[in-house]
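Input.
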Amino acid sequence: MNKDGGFNIYHRGSRLKDHSYYQYMITIPWIQFHIIVLLAYLLLNMVFAGLYLLAGIEHLQGADLSTPVQEFLSAFFFSVHTFTTVGYGTIAPKGLGVNIIAAVEAITGLMSLALATGLLFGRFSKPSANISFSSNAIIAPYQGGTSFQFRIVNRRKVNLLEMEAKVLLMVVDKSGATPIRKYTQLALERPSVYFFPLPWTIVHPIDKTSPLYEKSLEDLAKVHAEILILVKGFDESFGQTVHVRYSYTFDEIIWGAKFIPAFSIDANGAVVLHLDDINKMERVTLS
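Output.
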């Protein structure tokens, strides 16, 4: 699993109809979204500008015909005015051909702007959680024994309620002719919390029933162990459930450490959450 929660799996043999372009446009980063929308906008206007030139630039009243560059710019900006239904009136179509092109472009522009508006609304209305995970998981002392721990924090001021966490241990079994991935759910000390205003340290006690019992870093490295995590909660602002995924590989687990509190109390008695301290820990000796 990647750190952004995506799975490091690549599909081959998929068909065109297997892809959801709406989902793609909803989930890509904002910078990519803006670039694609801008390129599509420019491309469509350049296509219609080319059609106006093919139909004859002289059929656009008010167009600058002094040079080929000015002819293209006149056709392009007339296309922009028609596409966005601005219609300043400085350039007007004359003749059946360019009027048909302008009519087609007008309806294309209306549909394109409606589509872009829908995508923009979908991106803004899509609930998302900004939950940070500690950069490392740890093996820490716990009630006379040890435990596997990691810490999460809500970086936004929105309220997340009824939080739940599920943790899986993935190992690669190489005992047979073909390596097999095996998954085991890890029992948690507290798999859910009602409120999430402060950092939540998620703890898996390592007892005799745990698949991590008496395991060392070398043991986990041999089986390419990875801890897969799914956290979900109810976003009070959107009224919807949000999910966050994360993972720790065997080399991201620190043996013999404990987390340092990431909050303090100020002079007025208010709790101060230090978001940058989520990764702070100190080394300890394991029993």
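The chain has two domains: 16-125, 131-283.
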